[in-house]
Design goal:
33% of the residues lie in helices and 17% in strands. With 433 residues, it is an alpha/beta fold. Strand 2 (83-88) and strand 3 form a beta hairpin. Helix 9 packs parallel to helix 16. Bound molecules: 2-acetamido-2-deoxy-beta-D-glucopyranose (4 copies).
Length: 433
């Protein structure tokens, strides 16, 4: 049956006692699709002897190391003795992960619209690098079994180093035959055509920075790395929460007003992604009001630009997230041209030098680490934003560069990887008193 520790707090010894959870029973009751029903009928039969035995001895069922999902909303993990099930509510699929030493692993294979099965731990895997944060694999220490990537547009020094040294091969994202040589192929775009070994990893759809980071536990189930995932997430979360507390104490009378702005095809607008607004709040800032962020401003329309300039005059910190083909070429002068301003003296965020971009770490002049490393380590983004909102001049930011000071980008260099691929990357913990 489905086992989870979600209903029980960890005991002092750190051991968990699994229980049949209400949500798991709901999961089983709602299995109306024929394939899904078959799946659970199979489970029920398979597990019956174990259940009877457990009831007779009243002994707790022993499962392996487990992860408990605390913050993320878009996936759940259920544990059995020799298997686990991830329910992914972004792609609507259940991933049945069977331990390689179980009888089930030999007999069972599912590849339907709603269920896929994998034998774990995975012996190797490949990644469709399009919008895919590979840094999660680094934190888990799994680079040794990463054998294929679909492009070298990656912002991790150590993945690039393995690629350059030949231990990771370049594969075509559409060549199903080539991709079938990997035990699993991880993707982030669930709209594409999928083979049986494709597994979706979609942290970006979550609402908050911590929820996105907790997807490390999702990946860890495929490799039995739950303990590592728990340790990483706990460290990241503790640091994030500590920084949030410090940020809350930094505000004097009024919080700094923050605007994430974006220029595209002649139009300025404000970003509304909830994780960005959450970052600004957690770093001690205040987001520009909802009633204003709905508007957009056409640079060819002088009235529009008057309105936009008026709003910018009220803002303390601006984050310019305008896409740049070559981030290094995006300078203060580019921003001023885009907002159609020659005289910058009337904007407080410019005179106070509080104009930032999140493209500080760049590979190959084009790929930005904001879309990878920043997702798995949100505590670093938070620390950057605190420096942006409450400058000390003492903190060296990771992802954000101060455009008002024309701060340059940092080029990611595979030579800077000093770890062996099998050594996990430790999360960077920011000093927090
Ligand atoms: C739990 O994790 C530890 C440390 O990674 C490992 O030694 C142990 O074999 C794991 N136990 C199970 C049942 O997977
Ligand atoms: C991946 O592992 C499977 C199963 O162990 C093996 O058959 C396959 O050759 C491996 N593929 C690569 C690219 O290493
Ligand atoms: C912006 O304004 C110009 C001039 O009025 C107009 O031609 C253009 O279509 C507008 N752009 C958009 C995206 O609405
Ligand atoms: C910078 O750091 C030093 C030593 O850590 C500290 O004494 C000083 O107050 C800091 N300066 C600012 C502006 O916070």
């Amino acid at each position: 049956m489905c086992l989870t520790n979600a209903a029980k707090p960890l005991s002092k010894s750190g051991k968990e006692t699994p229980v049949l959870s209400a949500s798991c029973r709901r999961l089983m009751a709602s299995s109306v699709l024929p394939s899904l029903s078959f799946f659970f009928v199979f489970f029920t039969l398979y597990q019956l002897p174990l259940q009877a035995e457990a009831a007779a001895k009243a002994a707790p069922v022993v499962v392996g190391n487990i992860s408990k999902v605390d913050d993320a909303e878009l996936f759940h993990i259920y544990y059995g003795q020799s298997f686990k099930v991830i329910k992914n509510s972004v792609d609507g699929k259940s991933y049945l992960l069977m331990q390689s030493n179980s009888r089930m692993a030999v007999r069972t294979k599912y590849c339907t619209g709603r269920i896929k099965s994998f034998v774990v731990p995975l012996s190797n895997y490949s990644v469709d690098t399009t919008n895919f944060p590979v840094s999660f694999f680094e934190l888990l220490g799994l680079l040794e079994s990463l054998k294929g990537v679909t492009s070298e547009q990656i912002t991790s020094e150590c993945v690039l180093k393995s690629y350059v040294s030949g231990s990771i091969q370049l594969v075509s994202k559409t060549d199903m035959h080539q991709l079938s040589q990997f035990t699993a192929h991880f993707i982030s775009n669930v709209e594409q055509q999928q083979a049986c070994n494709f597994a979706a990893f979609i942290p970006l759809d979550e609402r908050t920075p911590l929820q996105r980071a907790e997807w490390i536990k999702y990946l860890a189930t495929f490799t039995n790395s739950e303990l590592r995932a728990n340790a990483v997430y706990d460290a990241v979360k503790e640091n994030y929460m500590c920084l949030t507390k410090v940020a809350a104490s930094l505000t004097t009378k009024f919080k700094p007003v923050v605007a994430w702005v974006d220029y595209s095809q002649g139009i300025w607008s404000f970003a509304k992604e909830s994780y960005k607004l959450q970052y600004a709040r957690d770093a001690g800032g205040e987001n520009i009001d909802d009633t204003i962020t709905d508007n957009s401003y056409n640079v060819s329309d002088p009235d529009d630009m008057d309105n936009f300039h008026a709003i910018l005059c009220t803002v303390d910190v601006v984050i310019d997230q305008t896409y740049a083909l070559q981030p290094a070429e995006y300078k203060l002068s580019t921003f001023l041209e885009n907002i159609v301003v020659e005289d910058d003296s009337r904007f407080g965020f410019l005179t106070n030098q509080r104009l930032w971009r999140y493209d500080k770490r760049v590979y190959n002049s084009v790929i930005v680490d904001w879309f990878d490393g920043a997702i798995s380590q949100p505590q670093l983004v938070l620390a950057d934003l605190m420096e942006a909102f409450f400058p000390t001049g003492n903190y060296s930011t990771t992802y954000f560069r101060n455009l008002a000071k024309d701060e340059a980008v940092i080029t990611i260099d595979p030579e800077l990887c000093t770890r062996s691929p099998s050594t996990p990357m430790d999360p960077t913990i920011v000093h927090c008193q």
